[in-house]
Amino acid sequence: MNFRARYKEDPEINLIPLIDVLLVILIFLMITTTYTKYAELQITLPTADAGKQLDRPNEISVGVTATGHYVVDKRPVVFRDVGALADELRRAGGDRKDPVVVINADANATHQSVVYVMEAARLAGYSQITFTTQSPSR
Description:
Elements: H1 16-32, E1 59-64, E2 70-72, E3 75-77, H2 82-93, E4 100-105, H3 111-124, E5 128-131
Helix pairs in contact: 2-3
């Protein structure tokens, strides 16, 4: 009697348990990972060092106070809607060729009131907008 096997089986590697373990590890990492939230960002806004502003005859100065009042070229404007503000900008621009809208916004002015000025400038057809800043006190 011959108890030895005639054919030798080749060893094989079973990958299914390995894949199961990797999936469990992946799920564990996904659950335990914490993601940074945008609300938790600590943002420090930049300051600007600029030279003395030159007088440019081709600019429309728009002032925005902290309470949301507007001044266009030293004339107070009552805000009714963005379209009326755009009409005031057109009136202030007159026959100037491609004027620059300079927004002088108070540091405590709402973001929305500045966006209204930008939208009014777009409606008036003015594409050049800039902001004024002050140098940090030393």
